[in-house]
Each structure stands twice: as structure tokens, then as C-alpha cells.
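[09:14] KT: can someone run the structure on this one? pasting the chain below
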Amino acid sequence: MLGTVNAIVLRAANAQSESINSQVQSVKRRANGYRNRARIRGPIMFHLGGLDLYPNPLLHSKP
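[09:31] RB: done, C-alpha cells below
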């Protein structure tokens, strides 16, 4: 009961975490060929981490 009152008073919601969970589930559905469950972490981090598929070579060049 106290948690419900706090959520109403503070206007807290779990919408952001539900959104991230929905995106993770979407990536997992699209990656339905993985036999090793540990390998699914890479695609999830890539798709949800905001990484570019083609990084800028000027920013990532070796000195």
C-alpha cells in the first residue's frame, strides 16, 4: 500500500523500463537462430546502445 501511495505522490512510473524491455524482446524475436544464449547479448547491446553500423573513420583512426 505504501508503494502505491509513493508512486502516486511522486508520479513515478516504470514506462521507461517497460519500453527497454519491449525493445529487448523485439531483438530476441528477430535473432531466433542463436543456439548459445550468451551470444544474444551482443546484438541487444548493439541495437539498444545507439551504435552506428558505419562509424566515422576520422574519429576512429589510429595515430
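[09:33] KT: thanks! The chain has three helices and no strands.
[09:34] RB: yep, looked fine to me
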